């Protein structure tokens, strides 16, 4: 029997699919990422719907939403906020920055310098920011959805490994197929449609769903499989450096979220395989002479590791 949460998650994916047409697998990855409490990196060329997808997710989840356009002159205080002296109060008053929201869209994150990128690290890991020696908690739930242009484009800075490691998933949208593109050309402007989307969930319901993710069963055999994949990544055959324990925990959490999205209370090897490239490829560098990209190398490693 299908649970109420499973029906609600299906409605969520269905609704976002009316905005980002022809990309249901990527939308399911995004929802699984947020269910797992992780941050999402969307890497692709400009104009394929990255920003629209982030906005549709926030609206459909009933969450507050701020968008920051990352540029070379963006300063850390532009994100976190600043204290300003107010004469009427004869004191400094803190003015929160756009990071104080439930969904922060960091648009074209790799166009800002490393110092500004690093300003997000504490927020993403600890769900708090420290400004002028004062630590302030961020709203819950809190997600960063960042978009990134390909690294070979002008005016981009590579994200440091520590920043990439904070993203649970990295996905690409790609160009739409012919039928989907025709629907985009003939239909209404997607930004207008997003504004009229009703919330399918609320923040409290999303937090409750995240707790259910933690309760999804992972058998000993599944844990053995995850450990085998982690060990393979560290063998030196596939990648320069292997996956960290934090990456392994993130992979298992994403697999549990994927199982919940499919209406199951247990995770299976298929769930791990479904999320593996999105969860680990951006954390790894292929070994010398691999002749394949990161995602292709992850898939090759996955095929070489036997199922439990």
Topology:
Layout: H1 4-17, H2 24-35, E1 39-43, H3 50-60, E2 65-69, H4 76-80, E3 81-86, E4 91-96, E5 103-107, H5 114-126, E6 128-131, E7 134-137, E8 143-148, H6 161-164, E9 167-171, H7 178-186, H8 190-195, H9 203-215, H10 220-233, H11 245-261, H12 269-280, H13 294-304
Parallel strand pairs: 1-8, 1-9, 2-5, 5-8
Antiparallel strand pairs: 3-4, 6-7
Helix pairs in contact: 1-2, 2-11, 9-11, 10-11, 11-12, 12-13
So what's the CATH class of the largest domain?
Alpha Beta
In terms of per-residue confidence, which ranges show pLDDT below 50 for 5 or more consecutive residues?
Answer: none
Order of SSEs: HHEHEHEEEHEEEHEHHHHHHH
First CA to last CA: what distance? 28 Å
Helix percent band? 40-55%
- Beta-strand content bin: 5-15%
Q: What is the number of independent domains? A: 2
Tell how many strands the DSSP assignment holds.
9
- Average predicted local confidence, pLDDT: 87
Globally, the shape reads globular
Order of adjacent strands in the largest pleated sheet: 2-5-8-1-9
Q: How would you explain this protein's 3D organization?
A:
- With 308 residues, the protein is of the alpha/beta class.
- It has 13 helices and nine strands.
- It has helices at residues 4-17, 24-35, 50-60, 76-80, 114-126, 161-164, 178-186, 190-195, 203-215, 220-233, 245-261, 269-280, 294-304; strands at 39-43, 65-69, 81-86, 91-96, 103-107, 128-131, 134-137, 143-148, 167-171.
- Strands 2-5-8-1-9 form a five-stranded parallel sheet.
- Strand 3 (81-86) and strand 4 form a beta hairpin.
- Helix 10 packs across helix 11.
């Amino acid at each position: 029997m299908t649970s109420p949460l499973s029906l609600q998650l299906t409605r969520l994916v269905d609704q976002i699919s009316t905005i980002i047409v022809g990309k249901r697998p990527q939308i399911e990855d995004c929802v699984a990422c947020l269910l797992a409490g992780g941050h999402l990196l969307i890497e692709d060329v400009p104009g394929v719907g990255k920003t629209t997808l982030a906005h549709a997710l926030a609206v459909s989840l009933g969450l507050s939403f701020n968008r920051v356009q990352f540029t070379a002159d963006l300063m850390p205080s532009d994100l976190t906020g600043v204290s300003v002296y107010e004469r009427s109060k004869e004191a400094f008053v803190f003015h929160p920055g756009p990071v104080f929201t439930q969904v922060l869209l960091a648009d074209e994150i790799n166009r800002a310098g490393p110092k500004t990128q690093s300003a997000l690290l504490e927020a993403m890991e600890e769900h708090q920011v420290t400004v002028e020696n004062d630590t302030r908690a961020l709203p819950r739930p809190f997600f960063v959805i960042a978009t990134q242009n390909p690294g070979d484009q002008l005016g981009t800075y590579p994200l440091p490994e520590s920043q990439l490691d904070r993203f649970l998933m990295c996905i690409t949208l790609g160009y739409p197929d012919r039928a989907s593109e025709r629907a985009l050309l003939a239909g209404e402007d997607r930004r207008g449609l997003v504004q009229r989307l009703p919330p399918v969930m609320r923040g409290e319901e999303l937090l409750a769903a995240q707790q259910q993710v933690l309760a999804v069963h992972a058998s000993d055999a599944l844990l053995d499989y995850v450990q085998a994949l982690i060990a393979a990544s560290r063998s030196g055959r596939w990648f320069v450096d292997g996956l960290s324990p934090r990456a392994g925990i993130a992979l298992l959490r994403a697999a549990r979220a994927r199982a919940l999205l499919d209406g199951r209370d247990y995770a299976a090897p298929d769930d791990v395989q479904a999320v593996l490239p999105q969860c680990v490829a951006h954390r790894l560098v292929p070994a010398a002479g691999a002749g394949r990209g990161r995602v292709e190398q992850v898939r090759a490693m996955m095929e070489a590791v036997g199922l439990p």
